Every structure is written in structure tokens, then in C-alpha cells.
Amino acid sequence: MFFEKEMLSFNLLDVFEINQTNVNIFNSGRNFNALSFRFRSDAVLKTETNEYVMKDNSVAYFPARVDYSRTATVDELIVVHFDTTNYVARNIEFFDPKEPDSLSRLFCEILNVWNKKEVGYKYRCSALLYEIFAECYEQNFVPKAQDSKIWQSVDYILAHYRDSELSIGDIAARSFMSEVYFRRLFKAEFGISPQKYIINLRMQNAVGLISTGYYSLQEIAYMSGYKDYKYFSVEFKRLMGVSPSGYEYNYQK
């Protein structure tokens, strides 16, 4: 999840305040990510598959290229727009902070610095956005279970997910268990299968490489763990909603 991501790389685009009543809007074609803090809100956000109910102090993340409708009688928020090169998502994510005052202060501060536009303001706003990410991460942090049987295999995945020869059987062997048992434990721990976990890591890697502009899409596929570019392209479009070439074009634009 976005709020559990330990380190994010981003390019800050914009910061602004929204104060609306009786809202009924459809947002589409967004080429950027958004992170918002709602001071007062009863907004309902709907995508093709999910519905999200906001309230006072809700923090929400909106991935690029995810269309949604927004209805509300009141919606007061500060929102930050940015590109990220090491996180891929297809769903809106949100949480209700245990300590909203610290996040409220940070969002107000980043808006104030952005609006003043004094010398070096983009650097200061980027630093404040890192503070916001850190606060979100801290308030969503769940320590690893010290007796977990699969963390050795997880560390192995993180080190070798770009290897096209990586197999779940080899990974399970690192934790000295059968593949079937490993799959079951992994899904219970992470909520997704180990194969989906690996694919997500590969897609995040590919997005980061595309953003550099240094490599061809075929090279990026290979560097992300895919021998077959066509298969990589299918997987990329399934997760990102756009082909690798389409993503490259949109990012450059």
C-alpha cells in the first residue's frame, strides 16, 4: 500500500486548496498522483469497482490514470499533485490518522510555502512532502512479526525479483517449506500471492526506469525480469491501464 511504502521518489507538481459545497464531479484523464488531507468532508468517491467514504481528517492517495466520481455536500481539503517513479497502483487508498494534527499542520505549511513562492520554495515543499510521507508511513507502520517463517524468503525476493528465472519453488525453499505451504503463509501475511507481489515489484522497477529516459522499452522489460517483451507489455497494461509505450509518452508529455 502507498501509506506503507518506506521510500518514495517523486517530482512535485502543484499544491492547492479546495473548498467546495454541493459537489458532483467526474475526474478522468489525470496524468499525475494526488495526496490530500480533508479538514471537513462527507465526500463519496466512486471508481468502476470501489466506493470510498471520506470524512474529517481523512488522508487519501489517488494514483495517476484512475478515473473516479466525487460527490459531497462539503469538501474542504489541501491536495498535492506529484509524479512518482517507484510506486504503481490502480486503486484509491486512504486512512484516518490516529494523530491528525501533525498531518494537518504539515499540509497547511506546504500550501503556505507553495503559495508564497519565495526563492527555493520547490525544494522546501519537496522536503515538506517527504515529512508528510514519513508521517503517513509512521502512522500506518506495522512491525514485522519476529517469528514469521517467511521473511527470509521475502528478503530473497527483494534481492532477486528482477531475475527472470526466479521461481516460487526456489523462494519457498529459502524458508525450508513446500511451495503450497509457502503460498498460503505468504498470502496470509501480505494479502496477495507471492507471484503478484513479484509482479508489483517488477512493474514499479519498470516505471522507475521509464522515467529516466535512458533505456528502450525492450531493455526495461529485460531489466525488470521479463525475457518476452510482449508478455511484459500485457502485464504492464493490465496493472497500469496503459501500454508501456503509452505510459512513456504520457510521462514525457
Can you describe what's shown?
- With 253 residues, the chain is α+β, with helices and mostly antiparallel strands.
- The chain has two domains: 7-140, Sandwich (Jelly Rolls), CATH 2.60.120.280; 151-252, Arc Repressor Mutant, subunit A (Orthogonal Bundle).
- Helix content is 45%, strand content 23%.
- It is built from nine helices and seven strands; from the N terminus they run E-E-E-E-E-E-E-H-H-H-H-H-H-H-H-H.
- Strands 1, 2, 3, 4, 5, 6 and 7 form a seven-stranded antiparallel β-sheet that branches.
- Helix 4 (168-174) crosses helix 5 (179-190).
- It is globular, with a radius of gyration of 20 Å.
- The two termini are 27 Å apart.
Helices and strands in order, then pairings?
Elements: E1 10-27, E2 33-41, E3 44-46, E4 51-53, E5 59-62, E6 68-84, E7 93-95, H1 100-116, H2 121-140, H3 151-160, H4 168-174, H5 179-190, H6 194-212, H7 217-223, H8 229-240, H9 244-252
Antiparallel strand pairs: 1-6, 2-5, 2-6, 3-4, 3-6, 5-7
